[in-house]
Amino acid sequence: MAFLSALLAGVLFGAGLLLSRMCDPARVLAFLDVAGAWNPALAFTMAGAILVAGPAFYWVRTRGRNALGVATELPDRFKVTKRLLVGSAVFGVGWGLSGICPGPSLLLLTGGSLPSWIFATGILAGFFAAGRPAARKLTAKFAPSDG
Fold this sequence. Notes:
The chain is mainly alpha-helical. 69% of the residues lie in helices and 0% in strands.
């Protein structure tokens, strides 16, 4: 059941990225260009995502379990750490320079373009640069336990 729910979530996520054209780096860069030719279309996509995800996060936060009944631990919303700030800065700079976010980058890999493969390689390099013990801990935390 965990696999099927993850598959459904992934298909819905990918379809949303395609429908909103969030996979188009030029469209993303136009959204990020608030001082120039700003395109606010992705703001509506993000608002829609918040409207969908908000109630789900509230439900999980109040119950401590996801829809499958598996115990869930959400991060502290108010604790700002150096690791959070550095990670956010690296994410923002990468997004601003490339116009590609990690989620859409996986979808862009299916097109086989060189920039998408370079970006994905950079993501993998970042995982390894962050340290293997942290990557193992993260993988173990989110690995499905019931197959």
